[in-house]
Amino acid sequence: MVTKDFPIFDCDSHVVEPPEIWDEYVPSAIRSRVKSQFHFHTDTDVLHINGRVVPATRERSNAAEVGWPRWSKKEVGALVPGTEEWQRKFGRLAGCREPHARLRDMDALGTDQVMLFPTWFVRLALVKDAEAAGALARAYNDWVYDYCGANRRRLFPCAVLAIQSVEQSIAELRRVAKRGFKAAAIRPCFWNGRYPTLPEFDPLWREFEELGVVLAMHTFPSREALTPEWGERIARTRGSGHGLLFTDEAVVYSPGQFLSNIVFSMEPSIDASEALGFIFEAMTWLTTVLMTGWLDKFPRLRAAVLESNATWLPLVLSRSRNFLDLYAFQRGPKVRDPYEVFYERCFIAFEGDEEPVYRMWDHYENVGLWSSDYPHHDAEDGWEALELMARHKVPVAVQRKLLGENARRLYGIEPVMAVTERVEQYEPAKLPW
Description:
This protein is of the alpha/beta class. The protein has one domain: Alpha-Beta Barrel (TIM Barrel), CATH 3.20.20.140. The protein has 19 helices and eleven strands. The chain has helices spanning 20-25, 31-37, 61-64, 73-78, 84-89, 99-109, 130-148, 166-178, 202-211, 228-238, 257-264, 273-292, 313-326, 328-331, 338-345, 355-359, 361-364, 382-391, 396-411; strands at residues 9-14, 38-39, 46-49, 52-55, 113-117, 155-160, 183-186, 214-218, 303-306, 346-351, 368-371. An eight-stranded parallel sheet has the order 1-5-6-7-8-9-10-11. Strands 2-3-4 form a three-stranded antiparallel sheet. Helix 12 runs parallel beside helix 13 (313-326).
């Protein structure tokens, strides 16, 4: 029998947005307009965005809703989503929408508590209509708050903000903070042509400080074409569509787009955005804030880098320090040493199978946050993390930090111990098809 004697906190797990967010939580008076600006859930094959419709069959629940860690990833990836064979073998996990099913799944995965992030709503960065984006953020936040009502000691919601409007985001941040939200998610990419570190966003980050809410920098697959020419090239290679997967036009940009666009224009045309796209997006934000002293503008702001792996952290810290020293004549007195700033102010998530983190555990002891990414197709579970940590001789005291203590310290959450032994035989509940 496999057991554990300390609580595990999953710092980055997901819900998958259901139709009722649009149909029940968006006010009826603006529902039609809001849907035209952004409407997608995995019961549909089309994405409505910015007044247009984009075929979305490739984005279906193969990635979003089949992340049961005990399934073979090779088997999950070998079947075409939506086919009868795929439905019969995998289906879709009910826990992504239904909280009681999720709690049962957490018990099987060894997870005692979880911070919940959206799936498709990280895409709000691509919505041009600020009012519609703000209405969607409010609707999502209300829905996920109700979802967590099933057990508020184990399920914790991370809010989403639509930073197309700084003033609107500040109002929403205040609203969710009053409801007890511990964190709010921002995607580190361009929002209507503006990057989040630009000075016009400073009032929002100051509000994060005042409210004590964690800034969760959460990445997302970057698959937008950079130019119409790239879109046409990708479409020719794939033999269908117009080469634009998430948007209605060529969009700039996220650093992960470059990899995706090159691979999509080659044979075989495979989705490479998750291989490095998430990492590039997070590395860019972190390098930017470390080399400019941005974090010290907001001395009480706490930030977490999420959904981007963590193995690359020592490289970014080392390169940032090296070139800050080489360009000391440009550096000025306001830019502190990147190591000092990061370990004082930031945290970073890693996934259970990320073995280099365990080999370099001393780099992550006080800043590492374990994440499962359930219910997405690359999900891992707590029991595997425990096994790999033991194999790599990570000290038990450090295991406790990486698997829960760091996350609870970041978010200010009291521990709950709900799971002590591994459930060997378990089949997760499925959504009806």
